[in-house]
Design goal:
Layout lengths: L5 H6 L3 E3 L10 H12 L7 E7 L9 E5 L2 E4 L2 E4 L4 E3 L8 H14 L3 E4 L15 H10 L2 H6 L5 E3 L4 E3 L2 E3 L1 H10 L1 E6 L3 H9 L4
Parallel strand pairs: 1-2, 1-11, 2-3, 6-7, 7-11
Antiparallel strand pairs: 3-4, 4-5, 8-9, 9-10
């Protein structure tokens, strides 16, 4: 058995929690209560920063501060279209557009984050992208095919993340997260976590 769980390597601090942003759009007090519930859950290891609009003050929590197209996470800065990609909301990028963005970041050595529209593990009938598909695209390449992969395509357990005869263990997954893919911004923490439970990954 591996000494490091591949699920931990891939999913640790994956979700920047953004309940103040649409579609949840909670007021600060309610958003903090929801975040406290996430922090108290068994899956809190998957929780990253709390996302706030510029000018919002929160004590005792690492923040991601959004000011228009720019997001600051401590010393790290993510800019939409450069190192941050919006996967939903007013418009959903096509598979080709999202694949091209991921491919460009890989080729240029840009660590990026994704936000909006990634509540579901796999693509939906409404055209939303799946977060497991995005993870597969960053880990394995072949971005267009990975983003189109249907439900049931991927396997993730303590040993490895697997797709179509390809496999990545904990060391490789940790390297990809550290060098290429920072996190996913999501207004919901429990919806994607719930889908991982339903798939038997957690």
């Amino acid at each position: 058995m591996p000494t490091v769980d591949a699920r931990r390597a891939l999913l640790t601090c994956l979700f920047d929690h953004a309940p103040m942003f649409p579609p949840a759009a909670m007021p600060l007090e309610d958003a903090l209560a929801e975040d406290a519930r996430a922090q108290a859950s068994p899956e809190a290891w998957m929780l990253a920063r709390f996302v706030v609009p510029a000018g919002t003050e929160v004590e005792g929590r690492e923040l991601a501060v959004v000011d228009g197209r720019v997001e600051r996470q401590g010393d790290d800065v993510y800019v939409e279209g450069v190192s941050k990609v919006r996967c939903g909301g007013a418009s959903i990028p096509s598979v080709e557009e999202l694949a091209a963005f991921i491919r460009h970041c890989r080729e240029e050595g840009v660590r990026f984050k994704a936000t909006a529209g990634l509540h579901h593990a796999y693509p939906t009938a409404a055209g939303e992208h799946g977060f497991l598909n995005v993870l597969a695209a960053v880990v394995f390449g072949d971005e267009d095919t990975a983003l189109r992969a249907p439900p049931g395509s991927f396997a993730l357990d303590a040993a490895s993340f697997r797709w179509g005869g390809r496999s990545a263990g904990a060391e490789e997954l940790a390297r990809v997260r550290a060098s290429l893919f920072r996190s996913i911004g999501s207004c919901s923490f429990f919806e994607p976590v719930g889908e991982l439970h339903a798939l038997g990954i957690l």
